[in-house]
Amino acid sequence: MPTGLAYNHWSLTSGYMLVGGINLTSKKEQRSEETKHSIIAAAEKLFSKQGYETVTIRQIAKEAGCSHTTIYIYFQDKEALLYALSTQPLELLKTSMDMLSVDAFLSSDEKLRRLNEQFIRFCLDNRSMYSIFFEAKSARVDEFEPELAINRIRQHMHHIISRLLGTYLNVPDGDGLLSCSRIYFYMLRGIVGTYTQSEESADSIMARLSPTFHAAFEALLLGFDKQLQDRNE
Amino acid sequence: MPTGLAYNHWSLTSGYMLVGGINLTSKKEQRSEETKHSIIAAAEKLFSKQGYETVTIRQIAKEAGCSHTTIYIYFQDKEALLYALSTQPLELLKTSMDMLSVDAFLSSDEKLRRLNEQFIRFCLDNRSMYSIFFEAKSARVDEFEPELAINRIRQHMHHIISRLLGTYLNVPDGDGLLSCSRIYFYMLRGIVGTYTQSEESADSIMARLSPTFHAAFEALLLGFDKQLQDRNE
Amino acid sequence: MPTGLAYNHWSLTSGYMLVGGINLTSKKEQRSEETKHSIIAAAEKLFSKQGYETVTIRQIAKEAGCSHTTIYIYFQDKEALLYALSTQPLELLKTSMDMLSVDAFLSSDEKLRRLNEQFIRFCLDNRSMYSIFFEAKSARVDEFEPELAINRIRQHMHHIISRLLGTYLNVPDGDGLLSCSRIYFYMLRGIVGTYTQSEESADSIMARLSPTFHAAFEALLLGFDKQLQDRNE
Amino acid sequence: MPTGLAYNHWSLTSGYMLVGGINLTSKKEQRSEETKHSIIAAAEKLFSKQGYETVTIRQIAKEAGCSHTTIYIYFQDKEALLYALSTQPLELLKTSMDMLSVDAFLSSDEKLRRLNEQFIRFCLDNRSMYSIFFEAKSARVDEFEPELAINRIRQHMHHIISRLLGTYLNVPDGDGLLSCSRIYFYMLRGIVGTYTQSEESADSIMARLSPTFHAAFEALLLGFDKQLQDRNE
DNA sequence: CATGAATGAGTATTCATTCAT
DNA sequence: GATGAATGAATACTCATTCAT
């Protein structure tokens, strides 16, 4: 079951360059795009592996096969690069989650199941996302506009999960539901955090462990159910 | 409420130096120990607050009230200090978990409950532990001796949890149990990861959220139970 | 009020391109000239405002409305631009001073008065000139041709002033006159140096302080006179 | 006629280290002082020659014969070095001028004469002072405390000169006097600016030109006198 | 044992300049 | 002629670490 997320954001952005099969971009522009792409790819890779702080601009440049100064042609500074990296994937994730959450043909537990998978895959595909999403690295995160992308989606996701859980468990908003969605988030974070740092490919991880992930959330849902029953008796 | 862990390991370690009331250490040695102690205490405090990377040797020295060069008398480098710092707490944690796991008067679910709490508190009290324990920071981790301490205890903990879960769920070793203990670990990691980076004090977090943490593991155990029942029917 | 200097040298230089009403320059050449002009204008503006060092090539390009690489088509490097900028104004200043000095209808003190004003205005209008004129910025000044323009005019100006002072004071060439013209130069430099770095506009400065400037030189001349009288008594 | 200023501020500061002929400083401290001194000397030399902005920390380090990082042991940053350089000499100058201005045995024109010479020598001995004193290089100058040293003394000097001129010319405070003291300052600045950038030694300059400097101010004073007489007639 | 002095390698960032088109 | 892409050298500043005492 594909998650349907276009994780490689370039496949999308490059789209406008092709009009009726005719490539309107000059060679220059194309090379420029390639360079930018390679910088993004390099940064993505390194941020994921080592974390934002410890990666140096020069490392990124080396990995991208360009001079470190070139990076500054495309991105104002290191932080801008981080946010350029994260904004689009996050928006895509959000869109995808929104679409999922309003799907009329799916039950709420099916929705949760897919949401889990989507989110896990997303984090494994964009491993630098983990620190951005969960660890809110830099000061800017709490001060400027880019933060919004992250915070907005984080809260949005909490909201969606909370709503789906409420529907599934058939409980109204309140402390009980808040607690459940918090726990649900712990699990997501625990899973993603565990594998985000491994060298294993996303595909391999999913192939090997998606039943475990599935079981994890199933257990949680069953557990929540049981807790509610016990409380009501 | 038995966290039972003596986090200040010096209170313990200094003990052996007194044998039958006779102080075997010279004054010099004592002062030396004090210096080492103050360095460790300072590093512990700062690493916990700011994280390993951002703390500087000079900061530690200042906090410890000695020259930065003195630190190199006792520890080969900054990383060695980190590991010196972590080894003992980890051993204490291990000991404590071991004692817990063999306690004849506790049920396995009570043991799990206490283990959760112990571990969470431990990580919140030693926040630099999180990255050491879960993220295996530096290359050294995979190369030198200190790694052992961490890996040993990590595996050991898996083992204990696995055993306790097996007893509690009444299932033999095997894939099912492995999956359950993995999931259990995800939850631990998710919780610890979430709060390890916050500014809130361990006490405050525990006061505010320990019921949630408790509910999380309870839900899991209930869920595991249900999954087993369903599978057997 | 005859400052009489055409600071915009392009109004003059473009003149020669029209011979007998026939435009000998092609459209291309014309556009090229325009670009060059806009670069010079931009550089002039920015150097005057911010000083040579802090202005960047890209700033100039932006101000000139062209690419930064274009600048290198017209000028070998940033310094060459500075000298290209300064040579012509300096020549104009020289010409203007020459014309003034040979004017048959003006008394020598009137000539000095106008010369002061011309020179002060010139420096305030071309503030980057100050450092070029008085401080002989770069090594190149002592190595290449452009220096000549500056040194030549500097000496020329000394010469003119010396001559005018000699006439005015009615003394022959010699140490006394040299000393007087040096002192005269100190005053010029002191005035120009004081205001060349201020943000105030040339017009505003002149409006506010030209009586002071006038008084300064008047005092000097009166003082020189008195000194000579005293010496002769 | 010695100006009485201890331009080498080290001769003063080192004073306290000798108590009754016994050198209380350890070798370490001594070497430290030497290093600091060499850094100051190097910075002084280079700032004077090239100006603050264009001198690099590494240049200073090279000139001082130490690593560039050593500079940061003694001075917080480049700017701190500039101010460390300037504060003491400025204070000494101020003290010296104050003492001069209250001297009961000197006439006001004699005071002015000595003040000129003192100030000129001071600027020639501390050539980086010129830009600090007259050009107020960095932003900090207008924002933070160090500025005070410079502004305070600048204004103080204006004040002293104004007062002495008022006494000498026998005119009350007012526009006339303001104009005169401004002009007086132009001359000071012109002289100092002219020779501050030359390679010639202060001694040589003074030997060669102090009569000219003297003549310059004498001419000004005579001129001011004459202007006042003319105005009163 | 302890320390102040000193340093080399490294950080993000900027800028004048060149190259390929 | 004109330009966007790319770069090497340089900038101030930091930090873990070593050396001499």
Automatic annotation (TrEMBL), chains A, B, C, D:
Keywords, comma-separated and alphabetical: DNA-binding, Transcription, Transcription regulation
An annotated GO BP: negative regulation of DNA-templated transcription
Pfam families noted in UniProt: TetR_N (PF00440)
Coiled coil regions in record: none
One term of GO molecular function: DNA binding
Tagged with keyword Transferase: no
Protein name (database record): AcrR family transcriptional regulator
